[in-house]
Amino acid sequence: MSDGRGWFITLEGIEGAGKTTQAELLVRALRTAGRRVVATREPGGGGLVAETLRALLKEPAVWKELGLAEIYLYAAARAHHLESLVLPALADGRDVICDRYLDSTRAYQGFGRGRPRQIIEDLHALPPLDLRPDRTLLLDLPPRVGLARARERGEDGPAGYDEESLAFFERVRGGFRQIAEDDPSRVRVVDADAPPEEVHARVIDALVDLVPGLESAAGKLP
Ligand code: TMP
Question: Against a cut of 0.70, is the pTM above it?
Answer without folding.
Answer: yes
